[in-house]
Each structure stands twice: as structure tokens, then as C-alpha cells.
Amino acid sequence: MHWKSYFIGLVFLVVSYLLYRLNKYGGVPSEENNWTGSTRGNYISLWMWTIFCIIVGIVYLLKSLPSQI
Fold first, then answer.
1. Which of 17, 33, 65, 67 is least surrounded, with the fewest CB atoms within 10 Å of its CB?
2. 10-48 pLDDT, tens per residue?
3. How far is 14 from 53, CA to CA, in rounded Å?
4. How far apart (Å, rounded) are the C-alpha atoms in residues 40 and 45?
């Protein structure tokens, strides 16, 4: 097992979780939250970064597995 790739993948997954939480509670401005929150562009870009970090994290975790698999 390649430990450096494992920890890099783990860090990317933790970052993606934090971005998810930021998106979940930040939200898009609406009448419900008195028009406060991030803009739609920021909201969409945070989701794109979240998905990117999830994919990269999974790739690094799979890369860290032994090559016999």
C-alpha cells in the first residue's frame, strides 16, 4: 500500500466534506433567508470544487491500493 497516495486521497475527501458543509449551510440567497448567502455563481463553483475533490480523492485512494488488485 502506498501511504502517501492514501493520505493525499484522505485529505481530498476531508476537503470535499468541508466544501459540502459550506454549500449546505451557505445556500443561495432567497426570501427564506432574507436574501443573504453566496451568489449563484459561487454556489455552483463550490459544488464543482466539491465534486472535483471527491473524484480526485477516490482516484488517489484507488491508486494507493496494491498493484495485485
1. 67
2. 999 999 999 998 888 776 667 776 777 677 788 888 899
3. 9
4. 9
Considering the entire predicted model, what is its pTM?
0.80
23-26: long-range contacts, CB 8 A cutoff, minimum separation 24 = 23/47, 23/50
Give yes or no for a contact between 54 and 20, defined as CB atoms under 8 angstroms apart: no
Give the three-state DSSP class for 66.
coil
Task: Count H helices and E strands in the chain, helices first.
Answer: 2, 0
5: exposed, middle or buried (C-beta count within 10 Å: 0-12, 13-18, 19+)?
A: middle
Q: Which DSSP letter does residue 30 get?
A: -
CA distance linking residue 30 with residue 11, whole number of Å: 33
